[in-house]
Amino acid sequence: MILALPLHKFFIEVMMKRYYVILSLLLTFSTVEAQQILSLEDCRKLAVENNKELMISEEKINAAKSLEKAAITQYFPSISARGGYLYNSKNLSLLSSSQFLPVGTQMSNGSFGFTPDQIYNEWTMLPSGGVAPLDADGKPFDPSANPEKIMWKNYAYIPKEAFEFDIHHIFFGGVSAQMPIYLGGKIRELNKLAKTNLEIAENRLDANKSETIYKIDEAYWRVISLSAKKTLAENYVQLLQKLDSDLQQSIAVGVSTVADGLTVKVKLNEAEMTLSQVENGLQLSKMALVQLCGLGYDVSFTLADEQNEITELKDVVGESTDINMDEAIANRSEVQGLELVSSLARSNEKLQLSRFMPSVAAVGGYNLSNPNMFNGFDRSFAGMWSVGVAVDIPICHWGERFHTLSAARSEKKIVQYQLDEAREKIELQITQAKFKIDEAQKRLLVTMKNTEKAEENLHHANVGFEAGVIPTSNVLEAQTAWLKAKAENIDAQIDVKLCNVYLLKATGRLNYENTAE
Questions:
Q1: What's the average pLDDT block by block, 10 residues per block, for the chain (517 residues)?
Q2: CATH label, 79-92+171-182+358-393, candidates 3.30.70, 3.90.550, 2.60.120, 2.20.200
Q3: Regarding the domain delimited by 35-75+184-350+400-506, which CATH topology (the fold level of the hierarchy) does it fall under?
Q4: CB 361 within 8 A of CB 387
Q5: What are the helix (H) ranges across 36-96?
Q6: Element of type H or E holding 157
């Protein structure tokens, strides 16, 4: 029993160790399986697919397409139907009261007249041989000049109700059509405006895509930079840990002093703090990249270039700085956008000019109503066709159209000035980008040489320290110089990458086909 108990405990410890090893492997495999490996192209694709600004730009394109289709319809006739019902409280009457109209005779010449037997007036013979009626005073008068003096024998009675029309309930309706013939070029310019507006929306989408890709590349390489610096910080901590371990042994045998050991421990604490800060910065940079890609913060991923050794990042090829300036400026979305806005301004000027021109349109339609206006306001539906031409000629608007035309011409000049200014600024921007990439490539070469010298210096310092001929302070200086050279080399490599991207963006070539990898 005395021997069995230790064996039992040993067996349990072995089984527990195996269990922990298997569990650790399973957790490791599950973590690796859950992680995504994203390349720069993957990040760009995700950003373009999930970016809200790009979605808004795409919807603006859809809206511009609809407006373009709406503008084309202005060439076709417009047809509309209308109808309604109206209730009136009173009827329509043409007479204020019943009327008594005298009865006359149609004369031999076809005119309306009268004969002596149709009036009560006495007649007299005139010296000329004719006859004339006498008025109440016995004086002859001309009945056509003074009909009020005639005393008629017969009257026609016309009651007021005969001239009343029932308009209590009125139903009306109709169909009308209008076809533009000549509007001074308004429709043509409206279609140009709609087409240019669509091109502007597409240009803004391209510009937003380029800006999104630039932000993604910047965030991507920032993560790669911090990931490389994290590895560098871990290596630096390991160097200090090894140096601290060696010093403790040296202190124990009396070769080194306690002060040297404390100095190394202070450096080690600073290095561990720096490592913690780099890890936090890396985590925040990954969160920023995830946000740009439109993914959730809980997504676990590893970047493709993050898996590379830092020495592999030195395979950087800078963009050629031999650039056709005119072509580069023409490729910029800002210039293309301003040129489209200039086209808008020209069309707007022509549109304002068209307001001085006459407008001609063909019109036609069919209208019906109840009561029937064509049959004595009978209670039935009836209508008629009508066709014609409408002309609108502007005569006087107190200078309003002249002022709007002048404003449109000023807007056209403003856009042209903005376009010229943008070309000058873009040319300066491209020149600066060329200088930056040249400087970045030269800096990379310098940091690569400095890194080789720092590694060689650190090697000699470690050998000398182990041989006891170099003090601890020299080793720490060599390690610090090595850390600085490595960090500067990482920054130089990332700077070349970003300068490549910046030059592509400055020359208007930043897209999926032309990457900065």
A1: 38 43 41 66 90 91 94 92 90 80 73 70 76 82 78 77 83 92 91 94 92 93 93 92 87 81 90 94 92 83 74 49 85 92 93 92 92 82 91 90 93 94 94 92 94 93 86 90 93 92 90 52
A2: 2.20.200
A3: Outer membrane efflux proteins (OEP) (1.20.1600)
A4: no
A5: 40-50, 52-72
A6: strand 155-158
